[in-house]
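Q: Here's a chain of 132 amino acids. Please give me its 3D structure as tokens.
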Amino acid sequence: MSFWSGRAQVEPLAALAAVLAVCIGLTLYAGAVEAALVSLSPDRAVAPTAADRLVTTASSFGSMEVPLGPNASSARPAGYELNATVAAERSVWTVGPNPPDTSECVRRRVSVRIAPATVRPGTLEVCVWPVA
């Protein structure tokens, strides 16, 4: 009998189940840590993150598509209201409620698709504030 014959092996299905359990555990842990960090630091800069998320969700091939509509609601951080304004070539598109004076705002230079095959430079302003 060979030296290795006395050692056990794990069934492939059991190994996959163990890996799945570890992945689920890590996901739950990361979600709990993220929720705890948000509650510990309420003065974090939310507007730059929301602006970056809005640019990512509303862009196609490097230029923002207007009007923003549902893209703005998907970029809104949990527990915050969001107002987004895009200005390009004498046109302005706004989505969201009017921001109060205490809101945190950030501006970004973006490329805006005015019409099919027409892209112009523009400005994106995103303001966020806590839900009252």
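Q: Can you summarize the key feature?
A: The chain is about 35% helix and 35% strand.
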